[in-house]
Amino acid sequence: MTSNPLNPSNGDEEPKDPLAEMLKNLMGGQGMGNIDPAELAKAAGLPDDPNLLAQMFSQVQAMMSAPSEGPVNWQLAHENARRVAASGSDPSVTSQQSREVDEALRLAELWLDQVTGLPATGLIGRAWSRAEWVEETLGTWKRLTEPVANSIANALSAAMTEQMPEEMKSMMGGASSMIQNMGGAIFGMQLGQAIGALSAEVVSSTDIGVPLADLEMALLPANVAKFGEGLSLPENDIRLFLAVREAAHARLFVQVPWLRGHLLSAIEAYARGIHIDTSKIEELARDIDPSNPEGIQEALSQGVFMPQRTPAQEQALEKLETALALVEGWVDELTWGATEKLLPSAAALRETVRRRRATGGPAEHAFSSLVGLELRPRRLREAATLWASLKAERGIEGRDAVWQHPDLLPTAEDLDDPQGFSERRKLAEASDSEVDDALQKLLDGGFDEPADTGSAASDASASSAPEESAGSGQEPPAATEEDQSGDGGPEAGGSPKA
């Protein structure tokens, strides 16, 4: 048996493995001989330890040969995300760190009570390691990225199949599922790499503005410390400021129960409409130089898999970015109101967070290049101005009442002109009221007959009574005393006499 599982032989000089032949074809006929495994691992963001690499490739080989539940190998994505998260410094959370985070989040809740009418969540603050963040959020990442991930994995599989010679396709026969699994494995590893890298940047469960973990309120102590590097500010101030932001996010998503589903559905709707540029994937499979691992990484970082947006997708993206900006703007406004008089460093920290959220970190850019999703609130400042304007005009309760229903949320036009939001809303409500009145009149039959029909019929009936009596030769009955007292003419409040 050969000692090289990537180039097996059966006693002959030429390899007989169809998979090896296909890989050789994909790599420009160079095969695997010119590849330095350590350099290839480096380009893929994998560990360079030979034992870990051997274990990983063994798992990949098993996964590619096993049936998958869908186009993307999520098990491999999960394992690679955990591996990347643990590859750097990811110490376990200490009891002191857990206590500090819990105390900061408790105090944050008390401060927020003074600046919002939404009640506290009652959630227990938690301190997470990076690996724990991966575990708690991967399910939501799967939900958000699955539509585009499936498309890309299918495109990868199709591109690899297209590159195969016809004779090899016939040799593969019923093993086409292996090609499908290979595409899912490749993209699963890349997605896991991106999520694992994100775990080293986020400081909380809601740091990217999306509730990745349902009904959770957590900080990542290691990343909070990294965030504070170079700021020359007290560590306790930094932790407390970020705790207020996390508690504000949690309060909004818990007390406005429709918001989490609304936001995640908006992201899913955008992702489902993404169209994959398969020509870029085919170009990668055809032209990439395996002897240049840096070129592989550079190609991926430049968005080789970046989906091309249609005009409809641009509109969907605008709606998504508006929703993200409204959430971040509200959190920004509340955090400022809660901390401006209690934390001397609040202004500096607010500006730091604003710039960080607007630009995104390296891992966030890599993730957006991979799946085509940019979860950045580009209009955060305009949204914060709008919420501040609503507070000045309506008070705290009036400002927060906008979250009662998605139809009440401001639009991109409102972010352009925050001061005119209330006036535009009044005009819209007045128009809606007119429509409701007209609809009610229609339902009541008010448009079917003239308004005086009833009184005219009564007059006609009254005038015909004497004629009928005269025609029959009978006199009309004399009015009784009770009748006379009941209808005394206009002066007595009765009906006018004819």
What does this structure look like?
The protein is an all-alpha fold. The protein folds into two domains: 28-371, no CATH class; 381-443, no CATH class. Helix content is 64%, strand content 1%. The protein has 21 helices and two strands. The protein has a two-stranded parallel ribbon. Helix 2 (37-43) runs parallel beside helix 13, helix 4 runs parallel beside helix 8 (176-198) and helix 10 (235-255) packs across helix 11. The longest helix is centred in the first third of the chain and has 34 residues, at 130-163. It is globular.
Count of beta strands: 2
Largest sheet, order of strands side by side? 1-2
Gross morphology is: globular
What summary fits the major beta sheet? 2 strands, parallel
Our Rg estimate from Cα atoms comes to: 35 Å
In oligomeric terms, what are we looking at? single chain
**Class inferred from helices and paired strands:** mainly alpha
How much of the sequence is in beta strands?
Answer: under 5%
Total separate domains: 2
Helix content: 55-70%
Q: Segments where pLDDT lies below 50 for 5+ residues?
A: 1-35, 464-475, 479-498
Keywords for this entry:
disordered N terminus; 21 helices; mainly alpha; two-stranded parallel ribbon; globular; 2 domains
Topology:
Blueprint: H1 18-26, H2 37-43, H3 50-65, H4 74-87, H5 95-112, E1 126-127, H6 130-163, H7 166-172, H8 176-198, E2 218-219, H9 221-227, H10 235-255, H11 257-272, H12 278-287, H13 293-301, H14 311-339, H15 346-359, H16 362-371, H17 380-400, H18 412-416, H19 421-443, H20 453-471, H21 481-486
Parallel strand pairs: 1-2
Helix pairs in contact: 2-13, 3-8, 4-6, 4-8, 5-10, 6-8, 6-11, 6-12, 8-16, 10-11, 10-14, 11-14, 14-15, 14-17
